Amino acid sequence: MPQTVPTELKDLALYVHWPFCLAKCPYCDFNAHPHTRMDGDLFAPALRRELAAEASRVGRRRLTSIFFGGGTPSLMRPAAIGGLIDDAARFFDIAPNIEITLEVNPTRLALEKLTDFRLAGVNRVSIGVQSLDDAALRVLGRGHSAAEAIIVIRTARRLFPSVSFDLIYTRPGQDRRKWSHELRAALAIGPDHISLYQLTIEPQTVFEALHRRGRITLPEDDVATALYLDTEALCAASGLRPYEVSNYARPGHESRHNTAYWRYADYAGIGPGAHGRLDLHGQVHATRRHRAPEIWFDQVRRIGNGIGQDDILATDQTGPEALLMGLRMHDGIDLGQFRARTGMGIEAFVDPSILSECIAEGYLTLADNHLRPTREGLLRLNALLDRLLDRD
Ligand SMILES: C[S@@+](CC[C@H](N)C(=O)[O-])C[C@H]1O[C@@H](n2cnc3c(N)ncnc32)[C@H](O)[C@@H]1O
Ligand code: SF4
């Protein structure tokens, strides 16, 4: 049965996908392609066209965030970013504290454009640093050094009200001593927010082929757990509160955009491969754009949007999705919001006896109408979710 959603859930987050990078990194399975594949100057106007189409589909709503992600959207011209922000401001009611994030690859090219990105309206940058160790950056196939990344972060801190950067850890050969040293150096730069991802071997990447042949090996699980706990302690000691599995922020600098995903709030996504979850006329739509840039582009040119799939979700789909997203956050799930969004209480999706067991075993807490993962729960989040949702 398609479900009904109360009309007060009208705030909207907007994701804009730029699917090109200078080169494809060997570990990455994002929808990202070498920038030589298509002409970026043709691509940006197609994004504006799709934004106009999406705005008329979605209707006038309060826009709380825009996130330019990729790929490498810092390859875009600042004027193209500014054009999309201006369009969004015409189509939607801009929340007074709107967060406008741009993912930035820390190269000299991006450094030269930072001031213009700020002038275009971007107020938060998320910089893909990945490592502060030059040897590791080479293994990760990155086209920048640690020193270049640090210059980009320092410059961004002068220009933008909120600066985040990403590092990848549990890399081949990494131990507690090496990671603590690297993380301390990262925290000393003073980010407002930091995303710390454990390296995952993704299907159909160069790293997967190397891993299969035994050319790269990841640290054992017990080492990965120790690195995770060290990470939490070091971040907390420098005033960065963990608020999601991989994200740490100074109070007030939590990513509003990503929090919309984790809270399972409404978001629209434009650009190749972008996903949306939207309440349209009381039904939750799951929308996905065509992934291949050429197919997306041709369809936008023909009919104004690149939508490949648009499904109306039933309650038995929204409930598990909201649970999967919500338990990533330390603050967990507000059970009142959960009911408002899915139309049903959590007990409709989770066997109450399993829920009680997970609470009794110390993986979850239930208090103040919130279901929260404990640290033990977060350390075993996938197994916990499998158990709650009765997945094999
Ligand atoms: C879409 S990328 C955007 C950042 C930007 N394109 C860059 O790399 O500079 C988002 C982040 O995902 C993380 N990431 C990508 N692939 C990963 C993997 N296989 N394991 C862990 N983290 C990964 C990286 O930290 C990356 O910065
Ligand atoms: S990690 Fe970033 S720069 Fe590298 S291929 Fe993926 S999206 Fe592009």
Outline:
This protein is of the alpha/beta class.
Total number of helices: 15
**Secondary-structure class:** alpha/beta
Low-confidence stretches: 1-9
> How many distinct beta strands?
17
For the CA atoms, what is the radius of gyration?
21 Å
What helical percentage do the residues reach? 40-55%
Q: Which ligands accompany this protein?
A: S-adenosylmethionine, iron/sulfur cluster
What percentage of the residues does DSSP assign to strands (E)?
15-25%
Distance between the first and last residues' Cα: 25 Å
Q: Main beta sheet, described? A: 9 strands, mixed
General shape: globular
List the helices and strands and how they pair.
Layout: E1 12-18, E2 20-21, E3 33-34, H1 40-58, E4 62-70, H2 78-91, E5 93-104, H3 108-120, E6 124-130, H4 134-139, H5 146-159, E7 162-169, H6 176-188, E8 193-198, H7 206-212, H8 221-237, E9 241-244, E10 247-249, H9 256-262, E11 267-270, E12 275-280, E13 283-289, H10 293-303, E14 307-312, H11 315-326, E15 333-334, H12 335-342, H13 352-360, E16 364-367, E17 370-373, H14 375-379, H15 381-388
Helix pairs in contact: 1-2, 2-3, 3-5, 6-8
Describe what this molecule looks like in 3D.
With 392 residues, the protein is an alpha/beta fold. The protein has helices at residues 40-58, 78-91, 108-120, 134-139, 146-159, 176-188, 206-212, 221-237, 256-262, 293-303, 315-326, 335-342, 352-360, 375-379, 381-388, and strands at 12-18, 20-21, 33-34, 62-70, 93-104, 124-130, 162-169, 193-198, 241-244, 247-249, 267-270, 275-280, 283-289, 307-312, 333-334, 364-367, 370-373. The strands form four sheets. The protein has a nine-stranded mixed sheet, sandwiched between helices. Strand 5, helix 3 and strand 6 (124-130) form a beta-alpha-beta unit. The chain is globular and about 55 Å long. The protein starts with 11 loop residues before the first strand and ends with a helix. The model is unreliable at 1-9 (pLDDT under 50). Bound molecules: S-adenosylmethionine and iron/sulfur cluster.
